[in-house]
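Lab notebook: predicted structure, single chain.

Context: the supervisor wants predicted structures on file for every construct in the current expression panel, including those that have not yet been purified. This is the next one on the list. No modifications to the sequence; it matches the entry in the shared construct table.
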Amino acid sequence: MSRVMQARLASFGLVFASVVAAPVLLSGCNSAGFGPAGAGVDRAAVTGSVAADDVESGSDEQVIRDAVAQADPRGVAMRPLAWTNEETGARGAIEALREVARAGKTCRIFRTSRENYEGVGLFEGETCRTAAGVWQMIRFFAV
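Prediction complete. Output recorded below exactly as produced.
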């Protein structure tokens, strides 16, 4: 047998051995729980998660309400008003703000963006000053 023929047989043997041996060797990983059959959610792992009550507390709405109450509607028309909630890490900008009178109360209708861990959203709302002079959020919803 010539040397060329021996070299071809040797390379064929290596290829054949790797094609046959690889699945056999890798099946050991699967049976040990490292493959797709062992994949899954580790329910025992606990991380620094946030309770649902903390997220839904409305603190972003309170920060937005306070920013709207302190803002000059004419100034917001020229330049958006940025707000940040240090408690939740959310932030955004009040882009549209107009003042209206409703049933003898001063109200402000606004549009704001909100960026938090869930993503970025656009919201509209209305806050009105009560007879006691306190601003109260009347409506706040995603657009």
